[in-house]
Amino acid sequence: MRNTAKITTAVLAAGALTFGLSACGSGSDSGKKDADAPLTVAATPTPQGEILTYVKDHLAQKAGLKLEVKEFTDYVTPNTAVQQGQVDANYFQHKPYLDDFNKKNGTDIVPVPGGSVHLEPLGVYSKSVKKLADLGKGATIALPNDTTNEARALKLLEANGVIKLKAGAGYEATPKDVTSNPKDVKFKELEAAQLPRSLGDVDAAVINGNYALEAKLSPAKDALVAESATGNPYANFLAVKKGNENDPRVKKLAELLTSPEVKKFIEDKYDGAVIPAF
Hints:
By secondary structure, the protein is α/β, with parallel strands linked by helices. It has helices at about 10-15, 30-35, 45-65, 75-85, 95-105, 145-160, 210-215, 250-255, 260-270; strands at about 40-45, 65-70, 90-95, 110-120, 125, 140-145, 165, 180, 185-190, 205, 225, 235-240, 275. The strands form 3 sheets. It has a 6-stranded mixed sheet, with helices on both faces. A 5-stranded mixed sheet has the order 9-6-10-5-11. A two-stranded antiparallel ribbon has the order 7-8. Helix 3 links the parallel strand 1 and strand 2. Helix 3 (about 45-65) packs across helix 8. It is globular and about 60 Å long. It starts with 8 loop residues before the first helix and ends with a strand.
């Protein structure tokens, strides 16, 4: 996740945000009309869009929910769309990313209580080596260029002995925090969506799970190493603009996203590449 560039007038005027959608008011004053209106959710295509589409096709109608899914291929627009009321909610991010986005952009987007749905293990991929130990001196590793996922990638490399970070390096760690680099690896910082396409130009790349899946890469089968689900803070969840947490439609979707049916769908479809977080 995600390029955390400042929200600008140009971004807000972009065609991607001009859906002409309605019914995005605060849950505290939503009336019957709002409760019956379609709930529009922004999501990245894989796996979030696929999970939402499963809910729409198999669960929503029976639960009395009209669900619309708007897919985006970046990590900024789903938040700007929620903040500006162009969509009702989004499903694409983890808490460290959202915290960083809110801090840098002055937004007030919050997780929906009970809305953690899944984890996409971050993995290291390569076309030139079969294991990290085979990386040569001066090898180039591509990293996500947004704050939280770059730190996440560096911590994965540290956990597997490639580098060491200075003590206390947290969710904002950068290559400047590397204190030990025995192989003198170089880092190439790229927008997360570009990482799969970089594999032909670098020795390895640390790729977010959703973009790996879109590129037909499996964290469970193709990654040299991947994150563990144990104690992992990077679960993805449903999020809304503060004040809309009690929208009955949002609550209903949160329940459906953490249902036994969705858990089974995730386990059956992704075979370990996406892991239920509930």
